[in-house]
Amino acid sequence: MERNQLLSDIASELARVREAFDKPTLRLLDRKWAPFVLAVFKTSFSRDRRSVACELLHTQVDAYLADLRSTGVDAPEKTGRALCVQWMNDLWLYREIRDAGEGSEEHYSLTSHALEALLLVDGLASDRALISESRLSTIVDTVRHRATEANPDREERVRRLDQQIDELTSERDRLARGGAIEAASNEQMHEGYANLIDLIQQLPSDFKRVEESVAAMHRQIVNDFRGEERPISEVLDDYLAKTDALMSSTAEGRAFEGAFTLLRNDTLMQGLKADLETILLHPFALELSLNERRSFMSTVTLLRKGIDDVLTQRKGLTTTLREHIVNHDVVKDRELEHVLRDINRELAVWMQTAGPRATVTTELMPGTLEVEHLRERFYDPVAHLGPPALADVSDAAPTAPSLGDLRLQGGPLLEDLRDALVAAFGAGEAASVGSAFNGFGASLRRPVEILGLLQLAAQLSASTGQAELESFETIRPDGSVRVFDVPRRILTDDDTAALAAQNLGSQHD
Q1: DSSP secondary structure of 148-205
Q2: How many CB atoms sit inside 10 A of residue 302's CB?
Q3: Can you tell me the distance from the alpha carbon of 494 to that of 148, in angstroms, rounded to the nearest whole number?
Q4: 1-125 in CATH: which number?
Q5: Strand order of the sheet with strand 103-110?
Q6: Cα–Cα distance between 266 and 273 in angstroms, integer?
Q7: What is the C-alpha to C-alpha distance for residues 401 and 394, in angstroms, rounded to an integer?
Q8: CB-based contact 450:481 (threshold 8 Å)
Q9: Per-residue pLDDT of the chain (509 residues; tens, 9 = 90+)
Q10: Sequence-ordered alpha helix ranges (H) in 227-364
């Protein structure tokens, strides 16, 4: 019994390992030219250079091949174009069309399988051991956090929270009392930095895997559209439901949705950027190269770019659905269905009298008419007549308004208002701006002139205290009277002099 169980276990493990070796990632590492392919990918692509124009990559691969052959290094015999096409068929490169200025241009980008292979090779080539205090602390903290969330016991959760609060409160009180701050050593910072870099380097392949999942669903939907035999109503209901559950129907999509909820928090992203800057301010960062520091600081950009790429793929899928709904012609489908039914009906009648080897010669397309010249449009004398003369209606034209009438419909007459205010307050006839306004002529008592007075008052010294209201009796151009309550304002001698000075320099206003 045990022997049979062991044979069953080894057979299942062998099948699982073979399935893993059939995946593009391990197929890439198992090929003869795997070091050359990975070296090309590492040289041509980077975190900041996610895609390369197809023709440019073909030229670069040809140059790499020529350099290696000139130094006596064994290299593939194919051209750069042939190798790129082969790598694309092996699911290591992905080709897509992107807008480039005035037109579109094809670009290559690495698939998730190629990114995983590069990540694996980089990990094996690294001299730094990733088993460290930082890595173990990350594991312990994550396990503690997940255990707290998984435990439904209310008292246990409260106990864990109280423990954390006590630990944090004790540390805060110690620092508040002037306790020493133990700065992390360079070795500790290096270990933590290596742990972070290991996690960050996995992000591009994770995002690319979600992109490929959405692209695969896109291709499946397009193929289903082309081979669909169900009624159009069922098709639309089915695929609209797929659109609603697009990111929840795959493991990659569900993971992305959870991460997206976290990453669209701008406050969190700003805090992450500030923390990255704080890490690089530690003295250990002086031992990092310029590229390492730049790559570390671009983590937030990497996250945002990955999200944008996935959302772009999802937008392409929804566009395909919309175009199918808009362009699907139900009338033409019904006409074609009627024609095919008529053909089947006539075929059944013909088969009642036709022999087993009888044939019918038919033309798939109608013949072409031999016509030397086909007139498209006949001569119409009416089309060459001029338009009828316009009727003279000048006698029915209304009287043109005068300049004065037009000015009454316009904005406030600031210059005239200044002169009137200066005259009213200079002669001592006005107790306030409202009483002066009520004594103006009808042309200066339009409702819009109140706005002009407020503008002039705003240019003078500010009033003190809370102003009382007074009535302004306005006269509209049609003669009707309206009363408005406006804050009371009294002009001083300085205000009157300022208004007079403004009118003297009105040509510079």
Answers
A1: HHH---HHHHHHHHHHHHHHHHHHHHHHHTTPPP-PPPHHHHHHHHHHHHHHHTTHHH
A2: 18
A3: 75
A4: 1.10.10
A5: 51-53, 103-110, 93-100
A6: 11
A7: 16
A8: no
A9: 555 555 567 777 777 777 777 777 778 777 788 888 888 888 888 777 778 888 899 999 988 888 888 888 888 888 888 889 888 888 888 887 766 554 568 888 888 788 888 877 776 666 554 555 556 666 667 677 767 777 778 888 888 888 888 888 888 888 888 877 777 777 777 777 676 777 776 677 777 777 777 777 766 766 666 555 555 566 666 666 665 665 566 555 555 666 666 667 777 778 778 877 887 888 887 888 887 788 778 777 777 777 777 777 777 767 766 776 666 665 666 677 788 888 888 888 888 788 777 887 777 777 777 777 777 777 888 878 888 888 888 888 888 888 877 777 888 888 888 888 888 887 776 778 888 888 888 888 888 888 888 888 777 766 655 678 888 899 888 888 999 988 888 887 777 788 777 766 544 44
A10: 232-244, 251-263, 266-280, 290-297, 299-327, 330-351
In the structure encoding, which two tokens stand for residue 52, read together? 């390369």
DSSP letters for 103-144 = EEEEEEEE-HHHHHHHHHHHHHH--S-S-SHHHHHHHHHHHH
User: What is the Cα–Cα distance from 440 to 417, expressed in whole angstroms?
Assistant: 9
Distance CA 214, CA 482 (A): 68
In the DSSP assignment, the letter for residue 98 is E
When computed from its CA atoms, the radius of gyration of the chain, rounded to whole angstroms, is 41
CA atoms within 13 A on the CB side of 233: 0
pTM confidence score:
0.43
Length of the chain: 509
> How far is 235 from 238, CA to CA, in rounded Å?
5
Sequence ranges of the domains in the chain:
1-125, 133-151+160-170+187-327, 409-501
Task: Say if CB 152 and CB 249 are below 8 A apart.
Answer: no
- At 236, which amino acid appears? L
- Tokens standing for residue 46: 């980077």
- Pair of tokens at residue 415: 């210059």
- Name the amino acid, one letter, at 45: F
Q: Which helix (H) or strand (E) holds 51?
A: strand 51-53
CB neighbour class for 236 (10 Å; exposed up to 12, middle 13-18, buried from 19) = middle
Q: Report whether 452 contacts 480 (CB < 8 A).
A: no
Place of tokens 């742990």: 195
Maximal C-alpha separation, the chain = 124
Pairing of the two strands 93-100 and 51-53? unpaired
Residue owning tokens 């009535």 = 471
- Do residues 50 and 305 make contact, with C-beta atoms less than 8 angstroms apart? yes
Structure tokens at 397: 């034209």
Q: Tally Cβ neighbours within 10 Å of residue 439.
A: 13
